[in-house]
Amino acid sequence: MTDSQNGATRPTDTPQGPDLIVITGMSGAGRTEALHTFEDLGYFCIDNLPPSLIMNLVSLAGLQSGTMKRLAIVCDLRTKDLFPALIDELHHLDDMNVTYTLLFLDASDAELLRRFKTNRRRHPMCDRGMTISAGIGKERGMLSGVREIANRVVDTTQIRTQELRELLREMYAGGAKSLQGLRINVFSFGYKHGMPLDVDIMIDVRFLPNPYYEDELRHLTGLDERVATYALGSDDAQQFLTAWKALLDCIIPGYVKEGKQHLSIGIGCTGGQHRSVAIAELTAAHLVAEGYEADVTHRDIALAET
Predict the structure, then answer these.
(1) Among 195, 190, 186, 187, which residue's Cα sits nearest to residue 272?
(2) Chain center to CA of 176
(3) What are the b/e assignments for 280-306, b being 16+ CB within 10 Å?
(4) Residue-wise DSSP of 125-149
(5) CA 20 to 30 Å from 148, out of 35, 232, 274, 300?
(6) Model confidence pTM above 0.85
(7) Calpha distance 106→128 (Å, rounded)
């Protein structure tokens, strides 16, 4: 990968990423996968946009006023005679103080040829009677000027699809876990009301002391501090919590690395009223404190005995 700095007057990336990502580059170098990655990161994405519409899109999106989420667009030679307007449109972005990155995806001619032969797609630059190799050469020549001014040039010759996604997440989400695409849903449930169908990680906390058998706690839920203190106050419970948090800290970065976008964590007790509710609340709070985007719900709390 090369990080090009040829555009000296061009705005640089902010710590949270630029307002606008303009993706271009060689056909077969990974533009579609890049766009999918930015979509997962919360960008509003458009493929194959004529460059002359960039400023209209920026105005419509309200980027200058900060009223809309960020944009990622693909502009490439599929737009034919409309593509040369790209450089002028980038100058307009500079004039309007819109922070952006021009991301150029590249790969060797041999690798691009291999990819097109493998997926059997028609190269967009291949006119009638032209070989794929000739189409690649034609495209490379037409893109040479844009490549020279790109903020970032990523060579995907030796990069697999998942590795490209991981690389882009690191570039544009960095250490901000909440921007890395993974959304975590933590929910409590009661086994007596049925097993959850949609769950990635499930843990049974019925081994913890059950507040149900305490008259003053039975009518309460795990949202009450007295219930949480009763269920989690023992040394064994605290040892479990320490191990549980350590397990989450170990496995969730792996899910992020693999590109998982949604993770569902189910925590069950007998009725879904006391112990599982308290643990689910603590679990979600821990994940949020670690920088992840996590929500908590309680599937069966409405069925609690009151």
Answers:
(1) 190
(2) 11
(3) bbbbbebbbeeebbbebebbbbeebee
(4) T--TT--HHHHHHHHHHHHHHHHHH
(5) 35
(6) no
(7) 25
